[in-house]
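for the recovery benchmark. tokens below, seq after
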């Protein structure tokens, strides 16, 4: 997908919306120094070009009973296309997996998993993750508390 050339106004729009995705166009236009019509045109272009992919609500995990965050490193027995695709397909369907990255180094994948309790994590590990064909080694670290957690990417730094 070709990258849209972003100017300072586009970056300002993205910065504002990452702070408040429900911001009304009138307020957004004031914050970025445009009149409402051109601001809305730019916003629609950012959406249609795929720069803005979707709008979401960020939910506090502990407030819904999800107090355990685990970082799981997975090494596959074999790193051929079939095993990689099978693993990726399986973890995509697990609600507990919040992020999954194909990695370099001593593990093939790194996952961020969120669950209610250590017991729930054990169930996830025993009945889901380790049952994926080709999983050879799993190493887990548990987060004690978040220090930095961001959802906004630094678009101002173009």
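predicted aa per position
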């Amino acid at each position: 997908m070709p990258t849209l050339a972003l100017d300072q106004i586009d970056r300002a729009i993205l910065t504002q919306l990452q702070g408040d995705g429900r911001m009304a166009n009138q307020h957004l236009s004031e914050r970025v120094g445009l009149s409402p019509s051109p601001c809305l045109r730019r916003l629609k272009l950012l959406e249609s070009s795929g720069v803005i992919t979707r709008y979401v609500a960020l939910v506090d995990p502990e407030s819904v009973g999800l107090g355990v965050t685990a970082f799981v490193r997975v090494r596959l027995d074999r790193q051929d296309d079939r095993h990689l695709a099978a693993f990726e397909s399986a973890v995509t369907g697990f609600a507990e997996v919040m992020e999954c990255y194909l990695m370099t180094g001593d593990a093939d994948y790194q996952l961020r998993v969120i669950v209610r309790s250590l017991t729930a994590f054990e169930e996830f590990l025993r009945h889901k993750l380790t049952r994926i064909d080709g999983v050879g080694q799993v190493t887990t670290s548990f987060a004690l508390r978040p220090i930095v957690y961001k959802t906004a990417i630094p678009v101002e730094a173009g």
